[in-house]
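User: I'm new to structure prediction. If I give you an amino acid sequence, what do you actually give back? Let's try with this one:
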Amino acid sequence: MFSKKEYYHLLISSIILGFVFSFKEWGYDKFNLSIGIRNFLISLAISLIFLLAKESIRKLVAKKIGLDIEFNIWSIKSNKRNKKYNIPIGPLIALFSVFITNGQLLFAAISNFNFKSYSKSDLKRRYEFIRGIEEAVIASIGAIVTTLLVLFFSVFKIEKAVFIGTVIAVYSLIPLPFQDGIKMYFGSKWYSLIIALFVIFSLVFMRNLHPITALIISIILALTITALVFYQLKK
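Assistant: Good question. You get back a string of structure tokens that encode the predicted 3D arrangement of the chain. For your 235 residues, that looks like this:
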């Protein structure tokens, strides 16, 4: 399912996230290497689970639609002296933020997905170009799958996984350049509103309600509020 390059980017992304989420856990009263390594490995493993789950399902959904996507570390291209460089902007922001704030700001938007080049005949699609709603649906998989995993981990009281997943889910909604949030917003504003409400309500309600109850109420409220907003704007 994943290429060697994608597996490499998944591993690097998990290492960066593992370090970010364990930044303040290298000892209690004083620095402790063994405690730090253990907490780092736990955060790394949890981050990898979230990344693998959401990106695997994202690929399946994209393939079902008839599109091919590639997982990447969030980077920007730079040309210098006729040479092309990829600057890993996502990891750099994450590391800079966690160091400069001493672990107070946890930046988790370090990866993204891109559509591979294709022709209509190759994919046997009805549409020649990628439609906005298609991009929005594929982008939303990150937030949806992450939120569902958070609800799952909350059943078993795995607080570390719940915390990491919550942060990743929230960043999946923020409209940062080349990230899921902005792809959802420009792909379909109404659909992005439904997903945002669903994620926010789920993360809030799971604190006091059973995860299944929180899930059902969140879906109902997200659809109802979006319908009411749509109705009011169309009056």
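You can read the tokens as a compact description of the fold. Here is one thing that stands out. The two ends are 47 Å apart (CA to CA).
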